[in-house]
Structures are given as C-alpha cells and as structure tokens.
Amino acid sequence: xxxxxxxxxxxxxxxLCKARSMPRGKLxxxxxxxxxxxxxxKKEAAYGPNTQHLEDFRAAQKLERSLDGRPNEPAPRTRxxxxxxxxxxxxxx
Length: 93
Known about the structure:
- This is Transposase.
- By secondary structure, the protein is mainly α.
- The chain is 68% helix and 0% strand.
- Residues 78-93 have low confidence and may be disordered.
C-alpha cells in the first residue's frame, strides 16, 4: 500500500462522516459526491503510484471548500510548504 492510499482513505472517511451529519438536501448530495471521488481515488491509488489523479483530488477539495462557503480560499498548506508569514513575523519581533 502506498501513502496516497492512506491519505485518500482518510479524506473519504472524513467526507462521508461530514455528509452523514448534514441535513437532507443538495449540499448533502454534493458532499457525498466528494466522498465518492475520494473513494475512487483511493481505489486507484491501491494499484500503484499515479500522478494523474491529482487534478481529480484538487477538484474534490474545491467542491468541499465551496460547500463550506469559502470557494475562493486557497487550499490549506501541507507540511512540506514553507512556513506561514505570521510565524515569520513573530520570530522577527
């Protein structure tokens, strides 16, 4: 198994739990769609490394952000990203 499999599995579980807690309606259906996308990506990642699924992953994240009411917010930084500007300001002062 690869790390991608584990990450997509975690995203799928989180999205599914979030959808289960939502009331019936369009937003719940869209959240379930995001969970299905993550689940399909998880199945693809189980067969081997594949970088072509990153666009699908980003599309699912964008869908989830739009459901939360923050469509223009950039994706959260990963652990490999540079330090945040707020931290840099704190260290300088």
